[in-house]
Amino acid sequence: MQTKESLISYDMMNEEQAKEALQLAVSLVEGNVDEFTDCFPDSNSQDNFYPKSENIEWTTGFWTGEIWLAYEETGSEKLKHAGEVQVESFLDRILKRVDVDHHDMGFLYSPSCVAAWQLTGNETAKKAALLAADNLMSRFCEKGQFFQAWGQLGAPDNYRLIIDCLLNMPLLFWASEVTGDAKYADHAKAHITTAMRYIVRPDYSTYHTYFFNPETGEPVKGVTHQGHRHGSAWTRGQAWGIYGSAMAYRYIKDTAYLEIFEKVTEYFLLHLPSDLIPYWDFDFDDGSTEPRDSSSAAIAACGMLEMARHMTGEKAQYYQDMAKRLLLALRNHCAVTSKEQSNGLLMHGTYARKSDENPCANRGVDECNTWGDYYYLEGLVRIHRDWKSYW
Ligand code: GLY
Fold it and tell me: In whole angstroms, what is the distance from residue 270 CA to residue 285 CA?
């Protein structure tokens, strides 16, 4: 547990450290690219090494995003080629509908295909990302006004939104921008309005998922899927809330989202343990033997750096500084320092941890995960230079 005073006493990552950490991370990505050009790393490592995977699950876009971030830093033709090979895989995936009956089109297609289109004008990437946006649109539920995360559309046992989906919304704002068709952005705004209304609790902790009545659209209840308890704050969910509310403010400019950002971020920061590497659920604090989730700190840092761009003066400085504190802690406690240690970038993440109130099996506990690697690298890029977002 922290206080406002204790938080500002931590060292921040300075420019030299940021440059070194970024160079190291980029060189590790370059070293891993031969292994993962025609395939992808699995969602999480095993003993800190990712097995190879097909283009499945919600997580493969993060590796392609790392390739594009590293390409931006180096201009390497090899990285560009690898990114282009992966873009073809993403087009193939959406055309053949391989594991796309869910809402995670933004996680998959923003860092891979929107990035490729922005950086290289790749038309295949644009086509794939627009098809993914259309696929996400097909999951909008009129009754309740939200995107259904998982399962058969309209099924009562899956009629819910999840906080993570806030990060899928930028794909829709992008689709409206490139097509000139407002329908994507309109649906994204409707989903964000619903999500923010129900998923943020009075104390600014957050529910992971929220159910609605499929007949009436009335709100039913908040339920955890990956957290420790229904009433606890799953750490990564809270981090998605930080980055998600920053994105909501960036695209909609409603000051209500600025306030939500400040409050959910405060909740996250005040519940950090003394080394600033969060446990997987905020039920746990210093002295616990439960595992950490480093990826949450990386996501939160990127969210703060995004929001700081839309603020001025002391507030902008505060969130930049806090992000640099989290990134320094990640560098000191979790960053991979050699290819012998891991083929990822950030250790000590947790994909899923079993508890009495969630349906999860233990998975990727105290391991690297692809989104932790990606957001750590995005955070380092963001503090190194003025980065044009893929989101
Ligand atoms: N979006 C799923 C997760 O954060 O595990």
Answer: 11
* Helical H segments across 180-254, by residue range: 183-199, 235-252
Query: What are the structure tokens assigned to 303, written together?
Result: 């969210």
**Number of Cα atoms under 13 Å in the Cβ half of residue 286:** 9
Residue 164 Cβ contacting ligand 1 at under 6 Å: yes
The pLDDT, as a whole number, for residue 383 is: 97
| CA-based nearest residue to 46, from 376, 366, 377 | 366
Name every residue whose Cβ is closer than 8 Å to that of residue 364 and which is 6 or more positions away in sequence. Answer: 43, 44, 45, 349, 350, 351, 352
Please identify which of the residues 42, 104, 281, 373 carries the catalytic annotation.
104
Q: What's the pLDDT tens digit per position in 336-360?
A: 999 999 999 999 999 999 999 999 9
Whole-number Å distance between alpha carbons of 263 and 269 = 10
Cβ–ligand 1 contact at 306 (below 6 Å)? no
Tell me how crowded residue 18 is: count the other CB atoms within 10 A of its CB.
Answer: 22
Backbone angles phi, psi at 336, to 5 degrees: -70, 135
Question: From the CB of residue 221, how many other CB atoms can be counted at a distance below 10 Å?
Answer: 12
* Catalytic (active site) residue 181: no
Is the shortest distance between the CB of 102 and ligand 1 below 6 Å? no
What's the chain's average pLDDT?
98
Kindly state if the Cβ of 66 falls inside 6 Å of ligand 1: no
Query: Distance, CA 352 to ligand 1 centroid (Å)?
Result: 9
Residue 100's Cβ-side half-sphere holds a number of Cα atoms within 13 Å equal to 25
Residue 79 pLDDT: 98
Per-residue pLDDT tens over the stretch 175-227: 999 999 999 999 999 999 999 999 999 999 999 999 999 999 999 999 999 99
Instruction: In whole angstroms, give the CA distance from residue 183 to residue 46.
Output: 42
**Is 104 one of the annotated active-site residues of the chain?**
yes
Instruction: Compute the radius of gyration of the chain from its Cα atoms.
Output: 19
CA 380 to chain centre: 15
Cα(167) to ligand 1 centroid in Å equals 11
